[in-house]
Amino acid sequence: MIIFGWRVVFFTLTRGTFHCPDCGGDREYRRRQGRNFFTLFFIPVIPLTKTGGEFIECDTCRGRWNPGVLNVPTTAQLAHMPAMLLRLAIAQVLRSGDYTNAAARARAVGVVQQAGDAGYDDAGLTADLGRPFEEVRVEMGNAASALAPEARESILRAAAEIALIDGQLSVSEEETLSAVGADLQLTRVQVTGVISMARQESGH
Ligand SMILES: [Zn+2]
């Protein structure tokens, strides 16, 4: 007697680290997809159709999620986010003014180092200054939503302070600060408040 049937076999496509909503922390995951197999004596022998879409499976709790779950930043990514956002914000503002100003550049590097990116240096700043404007805006928008409003305000504050090192804000510096504030998902009122506080402190 021949025993045959069908069975779903799951394949692992890729692996990585994600924030598991059930475990509440960073966990290893497998990106998987199921496929129907024709079985002979319970052994899958012939692959048939793919079943459903890809999903993310937590190695720890075995919970399954839609791949959209990978858009949530991991705890490790969050820890680096303030420094990364600072870099982007500062580079945007610096290049709208005199980005050759040595004092402004030194301060920019120092602020990013303080925020946790200890390896940041003038060469890193030059690289950030050369990145495409639109690419940076998208990256900032994605990262900003994960931070508290106070953290986003302090990032804009640091950028404003650096823009003020070489004197009064130029029109283009002010416009860039407003755009960066918007990318950081701050309101107009918050942006105006942060800039005027930075102005008062710098005396310009
Ligand atoms: Zn889990």
From TrEMBL:
InterPro entries in alphabetical order: TerB-like
SUPFAM superfamilies xref list: TerB-like
Name by which UniProt lists this protein: TerB family tellurite resistance protein
